[in-house]
Amino acid sequence: MMTNLVQFPRLGLELEIDRVAFTLGNMNIYWYGIIIAAGLLLALAFAFHYAADFGVDADRLVDVVLVGTVCAIVCARAYYVAFAPFKYDSIWDMINLRDGGIAIYGAVIGAAVFGGLACKWRKVPVLPTFDLVAMGFFIGQGMGRWGNFFNQEAFGTNTNSLFGMYSRSTHEYLAQWQSTLAEQGVMVDPSMPVHPTFLYESVWCFVGFFALWAFMKKRRYNGQIALLYAVWYGAGRFWIEGLRTDSLLIPGVGLRVSQVVALVGVVAGLVLLIVLGRKYKNVPFQVQLAVSGDALKQARAAGLTDAQVASIAGKLPAGASHAAFAAQTAQIAQTNWAARAAALEEENAPAEETAPKEENAPETAEQPEASDE
Question: Which of 83, 140, 141, 178 sits most deeply, having the most CB atoms within 10 A of its CB?
Answer without folding.
Answer: 140
